[in-house]
Write a structure and sequence with these properties.
Layout (H helix, E strand, L loop, with lengths): L1 H23 L2 H21 E14 L25 E17 L2 E9 L4 E11 L6 E9 L20 H6 L4 E9 L10 E8 L13 E11 L3 E15 L5 E5 L2 E5 L8 E17 L2 E16 L19 E16 L5 E11 L22 E11 L4 E12 L15 E9 L1
Parallel strand pairs: 10-14
Antiparallel strand pairs: 1-2, 1-18, 2-3, 3-4, 4-5, 5-6, 6-7, 7-8, 8-9, 9-12, 10-11, 12-13, 13-14, 14-15, 15-16, 16-17, 17-18
Length: 428
C-alpha cells in the first residue's frame, strides 16, 4: 500500500514537472526553430537537382550475306536460332538518372546509366570555379571528353538515335577519367564568346586507369548569337598513347601493312592522335528553326587486326592482340528543320568513317594483312521527330548504310544492313 502511494506521488510530481517545462518553452523560439529548419531544407533543395531521361526503343535491321544483323543495332542480344528476314529487338537504349549539387561556384555531378543489361556510372565529377577572377574552372572525375561538338552533345538532344560512326569508334562511352581546366570569361564580358577546355585523361573510356601515360585533349570554341540566329565553330586536338601488348606493330601504308617486331615494341606505346574541326549554325524563320551542324576529324588510330577501336578502351575484341596503326578520317553533316511553329521536325544526316585512308575498295583483302577493320562506311539517315510536350519526344529514324566493295568475304558488294529505329523518350 505504501509502495502504491509512493508510485502515485512520483507520477503526480513527474506530470507537474512536465507541465511546468511546457509552460517554460518560449513559443516564439520554437517557431523560429521550425522556420530555420524549413529554410535550410529549401536552401538544400534549391542547390540539389535531379534529372534524367529514358529512351525505350524498337529496332529492326536487314540480315547480311553472312546471316548477321547490323552492328549498329544497340539493343537486344544475339540468338543462335535462325532469324527471319527482319531481325528486330526491343530495349532500353539509355536510362539516365542524374543528381547535380551546385553551391557558390562548386558543382558535383553523379549520373547513372540504367538499362535491362546493367547499371553503371556514367558521370561522377566535381567542378570548382576560381572565386577571384571567375575565369577558370577545374573539373575532375569521370566526365565527357572535351573533343569536338557531337561528343559533348547530350544524348537526350540527339536528333539521330546515335552519334556518328567516327565518334562512336574514337570515343566510346563519350566520357573518360581525367582532369581538365576550363577558361571562359563571365557572361557579362565580351570575351564570353570564347571558351577553352583542355585536360589530361586516362584514355580508357569509363574503365580503370591502367598505365602512367596520360592523353591530352583540348577544344577551343567561338560561339555567338543574334536576335534570330546562333553560330559557332571549334578546333580540337587529341594526343595520346596506346600500349602495345606484343612485339608485332603493323603500320598502314599504300601497299598494305609494314611490320616492325623489335623487342622494344613490347609494352611500348603507339601514338594516338586526332585533329577535329566543328561548326554549327541555326536560324529562326517563318519556316521554323533550321539547324546545321558539321564535324570533320582525321588522325592516327592504333587498333587491332579485326577492329579500329583502340586496344585499351574496353571495346576491342582481344586486348592482347598485335597493334595495327592506321590513318583515319571521317565526320558528319547534320540538318534539322522544324516544321513552322509545330512540334514536328525532319532530320537528314550524312556521316562517314574511313578507318584506313591509305587503301581503298578492292585493295582491302588483297594487300598484306588488310581486312574487315579497314572497310570504310557511309550512312544517310532520315528521321522524323514529334515533341508531344516538354518531356515526351517520339522519333522514327532510318539508317541507310553503305560499305566499300572489297575482296573480303561477305563484303564483295554492299552489305544489307540498313536499320530502322522507333523510339519514345521521356525526359524529366
Amino acid at each position: 500500500m505504501k509502495f502504491k502511494s509512493f508510485a502515485l506521488a512520483l507520477g503526480l510530481i513527474s506530470t507537474t514537472v512536465a507541465f511546468a517545462q511546457e509552460e517554460n518553452v518560449d513559443p516564439i523560439e520554437g517557431l523560429n526553430q521550425r522556420v530555420t529548419l524549413l529554410e535550410d531544407a529549401k536552401t538544400v533543395s534549391s542547390k540539389l537537382k535531379f534529372s534524367g531521361y529514358i529512351q525505350a526503343q524498337w529496332q529492326t535491321s536487314q540480315i547480311d550475306s553472312l546471316g548477321n544483323k547490323t552492328n549498329d543495332m544497340k539493343v537486344g542480344t544475339k540468338n543462335n536460332a535462325s532469324e527471319p528476314s527482319d531481325y528486330n529487338r526491343f530495349g532500353i537504349r539509355r536510362g539516365r538518372l542524374k543528381a547535380t549539387y551546385t553551391d557558390s561556384g562548386y558543382e558535383g555531378v553523379v549520373e547513372l546509366d540504367i538499362n535491362e543489361k546493367s547499371v553503371k556510372v556514367k558521370t561522377a565529377s566535381v567542378q570548382v570555379l576560381d572565386p577571384w577572377t571567375t575565369l577558370f574552372s577545374v573539373r575532375g572525375g569521370i566526365f565527357v571528353r572535351p573533343f569536338g561538338y557531337e561528343c559533348e552533345y547530350s544524348s537526350s538532344k540527339l536528333e539521330s538515335p546515335e552519334r556518328s560512326r567516327i565518334t562512336q569508334t574514337l570515343f566510346p562511352d563519350e566520357n573518360d577519367l581525367g582532369v581538365s581546366l576550363i577558361v571562359r570569361a563571365p557572361k557579362t564580358s565580351p570575351w564570353y564568346v570564347l571558351k577553352l577546355e583542355a585536360g589530361l585523361f586516362s584514355g580508357n573510356a569509363i574503365s580503370q586507369d591502367n598505365d602512367s601515360k596520360k592523353d591530352f585533349i583540348g577544344h577551343i570554341t567561338y560561339s555567338d548569337a543574334t536576335a534570330s540566329s546562333r553560330y559557332g565553330f571549334g578546333v580540337s586536338l587529341y594526343s595520346g598513347f596506346i600500349m602495345q601488348p606484343t612485339v608485332n606493330v603493323y603500320s598502314g601504308s599504300a601497299s598494305g601493312y609494314n611490320l616492325s617486331n623489335l623487342a622494344s615494341n613490347l609494352n611500348g606505346f603507339a601514338k594516338r592522335q586526332y585533329i577535329g574541326f566543328d561548326g554549327q549554325y541555326s536560324i529562326s524563320s517563318n519556316f521554323g528553326l533550321t539547324s546545321l551542324r558539321a564535324e570533320y576529324i582525321f588522325g592516327k588510330q592504333p587498333g587491332s587486326s579485326s577492329s579500329s577501336n583502340s586496344n585499351n578502351d574496353g571495346t576491342a575484341p582481344v586486348v592482347t592482340a598485335d597493334t595495327y596503326i592506321r590513318n583515319i578520317a571521317g565526320g558528319y553533316v547534320n540538318f534539322v528543320q522544324d516544321i513552322a511553329d509545330t512540334q514536328h521536325s525532319i532530320v537528314v544526316k550524312y556521316d562517314w568513317y574511313d578507318p584506313n585512308t591509305d587503301i581503298k575498295g578492292n585493295q582491302i583483302g588483297a594487300l598484306s594483312k588488310t581486312g574487315k577493320a579497314d572497310i570504310a562506311y557511309s550512312t544517310i539517315g532520315l528521321g522524323y521527330l514529334y515533341r508531344m510536350n516538354n518531356n515526351v519526344r517520339l522519333s522514327a529514324y532510318y539508317d541507310m548504310v553503305t560499305n566499300e566493295k572489297t575482296n573480303v568475304k561477305g563484303y564483295y558488294t554492299n552489305v544489307n544492313d540498313n536499320l530502322l529505329t522507333i523510339r519514345m523518350q521521356y525526359k524529366f
